[in-house]
Design brief:
Number of domains: 1
Distance between the termini: 36 Å
Low-confidence stretches: none
Structural class: mainly alpha
Mean pLDDT: 90
Number of helices: 2
Strand content: under 5%
Largest sheet: none
Number of strands: 0
Length: 54
């Protein structure tokens, strides 16, 4: 099913992104970069993220 492949792809992306954060020389910088990418993806689907920001 296409949905299963999409879900699997998303899980792999999440795993690799977390690994990038974990292994980064500058964890805070990598974390901010990953958040920026995720925010852009959410906003491209019309999801406003400002209410979710801490």
């Amino acid at each position: 099913m296409p949905c299963d492949k999409e879900m699997l792809n998303n899980l792999i992306d999440n795993y690799t992104n977390l690994q990038r954060i974990k292994k980064s020389d500058d964890v805070q910088k990598e974390l901010e970069y990953q958040l920026k990418i995720l925010k852009a993806k959410l906003e491209s689907f019309g999801i406003v993220t400002t209410d979710l920001d801490l």
